[in-house]
Amino acid sequence: MTSCAMPRSDGAAPDAALRRGACPSLAKPMQTGDGLLVRLRPATGGMTPGELRALAAAAERFGNGILEVTARGNLQIRGLTAATVAGLASAISEAGIAIAEGVAIETPPLAGVDADEIVDPRPLARALREAIAALDPPFTLAPKLSIIIDGGGRVHLDDIVADLRLKAVKADDGVAWLLSLGGTARTARSVALLDARETIPSLLAVLGRLAAIGDSARGRDLDAEALGNELAGGERRPARPILRAEPTISAAGMHMAAGGATVLGIGFAFAQTDAASLTAFLRKAEELGATEIRPAPGHGLFVLGLDREAAATAQRLASSLGFRIAPDDPRNHIATCAGTGACASALMETKVVARLMVEAAPELLDGSMSVHLSGCPKGCARPSSSELTLVGAPSGYALVVNGTASVAPSAYTDANGIKTALAHLGALVRQNKDAGESARSCLTRLGAARIAAAFEQG
Hints:
By secondary structure, the protein is of the alpha+beta class. It contains 11 helices and 19 strands.
């Protein structure tokens, strides 16, 4: 056990049956408990308030009116049927909303306006999309393969898992790009430090290597050291810097953009909202001067174009409509999937349990760690490890300490005992935390056995 990681309950790899396939899209919706689900990525990274209002109206007309922003910052529309998907597609087209297709190439939600970024990553992302689209014959790649191109700003994608990651770093002669493989920024394996001219050829070479392995190959399947030597072509390279993960910035709150502009961040409560609430917010935001809405990782939206006073007015409205508006909102630190009723696999009403946690165990939600509530062992809301993960089980609820939803749990409680179990976890932190100590540090010190015992305490 170390000071930076809570004790692991089980390090086993996920069962093959729990691995997710292709992402749902307009062309290939996914069947869930509340109908078909479609996931969308705006091609330009954002939409006008009017375009997002049109999408909300389409979600209400053709789905069940529930919209979500995923942990990666993608939009989801729920409750569709085979007969209504075509209507949704037509509405999106009529609204002029361009949807990204092909390999997922992601940039931070404030790319181009982040006051701290080293370089705007969007031109490089655009050039890569064009280069991939021009391949003849095209590469056949894993459906869920993802590439992150991060300009090194304050609002970053370090916590998002990617197969290939390019992150801008400052170099003696300007800007260089650090290429790494697999995982988050904290766990990624560095491959090479590239100058701007090398990035596209190098990424295509890596994608070609993955395609040669097969259509299920991911970044984790490549040898980073061997790949780095291959890209170097026998030449001596400068030392690769260590890719250090930066603290995550909550989408909820006021943010300063380049030139002193204000960006308003709001979050969806437990990852989703209804079309009526979103429409009411967007209509007022547009009246106040909002020009662009960008979906953000962490289930949020960034609103651009408002001055400080207008942003404060819009923020108050967002709060009244149930959106998260502040970095210290305890709901920021709970990751939930759709849960029972919305997903056929789920065995937990995740939104209900999330509200219980806010009420019964606020001590866990001080921002030092994330709590993952997963309806089943697939862990869709947070594929990476969490300090505490609660998983729906046939007999109640399973608790995983410092692991993913798919690993062996440390403790169980029955369906009637969940509120008491959560209260005991909160009390464990409250009664044992030293002055100035975070919940995460406290639980790390106490260890998995005491955490499990508190959860199962009658």
